[in-house]
Amino acid sequence: MDEEQAQGEHVISDHRGRKYITLDEPDGVVVLAKKEDAFLLIRQYRPAVDAVVVQLPGGGVEPGETLVQAARRELAEETGYTCGDLSYLGTMLPASWRSNDSTHIFFTDNLNVQQEQQLEDHENIQVYVLPITECIHKVKNNTFSDGELSFALFQAHLHGYLPIYG
């Protein structure tokens, strides 16, 4: 296999020319945050798909952080909300056929007072509060196609945090 390396990632080509990406720090976190009868989502432009995507607040885990610390930090930075209890819903591999990325999913329904977002220079994120039934409808009809959001909804239901919606 051939390998290229750039800032913590390795691009590997196998004998057929297929490319795989392995990251030195593959862990990320997202939070499915329930605010009364709605979810706290974010909208942001994603250059890889050249589209504005509705997704869960989250991001990378910094060196020395636990997954819970990273989830709390990312929620506060991207939305301005802090939270009480966080429940771990599981891990998903967003593109295991292409990358070693792994996303750890958390749930909270214990949101605290909103403050200012603390976005990084490259981020342009809009907070989007959407009723639960509308969110599920948009996932069901493929209006929202973010894998982490879909996985989080499914896991939240399986863990008893969300009833069945039609």
Automatic annotation (TrEMBL):
<comment type="similarity">
    <text>Belongs to the Nudix hydrolase family.</text>
</comment>
<dbReference type="InterPro" id="IPR020084">
    <property type="entry name" value="NUDIX_hydrolase_CS"/>
</dbReference>
<dbReference type="InterPro" id="IPR015797">
    <property type="entry name" value="NUDIX_hydrolase-like_dom_sf"/>
</dbReference>
<feature type="domain" description="Nudix hydrolase">
    <location>
        <begin position="22"/>
        <end position="152"/>
    </location>
</feature>
<protein>
    <submittedName>
        <fullName>ADP-ribose pyrophosphatase</fullName>
    </submittedName>
</protein>
<dbReference type="GO" id="GO:0016462">
    <property type="term" value="F:pyrophosphatase activity"/>
</dbReference>
<keyword id="KW-0378">Hydrolase</keyword>
<dbReference type="InterPro" id="IPR020476">
    <property type="entry name" value="Nudix_hydrolase"/>
</dbReference>
<dbReference type="GO" id="GO:0006753">
    <property type="term" value="P:nucleoside phosphate metabolic process"/>
</dbReference>
<dbReference type="Pfam" id="PF00293">
    <property type="entry name" value="NUDIX"/>
</dbReference>
<dbReference type="GO" id="GO:0019693">
    <property type="term" value="P:ribose phosphate metabolic process"/>
</dbReference>
<dbReference type="InterPro" id="IPR000086">
    <property type="entry name" value="NUDIX_hydrolase_dom"/>
</dbReference>
